[in-house]
Design a protein that fits this description.
The chain is of the alpha+beta class and about 180 residues long. The chain contains six helices and eight strands. It binds iron/sulfur cluster.
Length: about 180
């Protein structure tokens, strides 16, 4: 088989087509720690894999072992990574003082302090221990809380515990209900 031997010799002379750079290439999640979580956006409850390196989230993907989503995420869930890393995130709040005709930018610390003070004042003013039927209720109907879909499980747990059990707020609602 002279042709075959010729061809074999020829192939043997061809340098390895896989470069060192190609051999060293790997997925961006290579070497990352992976944590199982739940998409915060809706009640479907798709499972997610959260990849971290040096305590920073580097990627979020669908969990292929989940019987709910089998590795997939809808476009909204697939964009969860941008909740954490987003250069367009707004880092101040808009505040319009009573009787003012314009909005001011305020820091989040300022907003948190103001909300805390107003919550305390309102609860002190409207807290009911006993209702008109002489029933113990320990509640306030003067404050409500509406959560957003980007609140995660742990935040919702703390909100429920603090606002209902702790402060006696009855009207606590959330979009996602996970
Ligand atoms: S928003 Fe999309 S990815 Fe997230 S739980 Fe709902 S269906 Fe799943």
């Amino acid at each position: 088989m002279p042709i075959f031997n010729k061809l074999k010799n020829y192939i043997g002379l061809v340098p390895n087509p896989v470069t060192e750079r190609t051999k060293a290439a790997h997925a961006r999640t290579h070497g990352a720690s992976v944590h199982i979580s739940v998409c915060p956006y809706c009640a479907v409850g798709c499972s997610q894999l959260v990849y971290t390196k040096d305590s920073k989230i580097i990627d979020i993907e669908g969990n292929y072992e989940s019987p709910i989503n089998g590795g997939t995420l809808c476009p909204k869930g697939a964009a969860t990574f941008n909740l954490v890393h987003n250069p367009y995130r707004i880092t101040t709040v808009k505040y319009r003082a009573p009787y003012s005709d314009h909005w001011e930018d305020k820091s989040l610390d300022w907003a948190m302090e103001r909300i805390a003070q107003l919550t305390k004042q309102t609860r002190d003013a409207y807290f009911e221990e006993i209702d008109q039927n002489d029933q113990r209720v320990n509640r306030t109907l003067a404050i409500g809380h509406l959560g957003g879909a980007t609140l995660d499980n742990e935040e919702n747990y703390l909100i429920k515990k603090l606002f209902t059990g702790g402060l006696g707020i009855v009207a606590v609602e959330n979009q996602a209900r996970i």
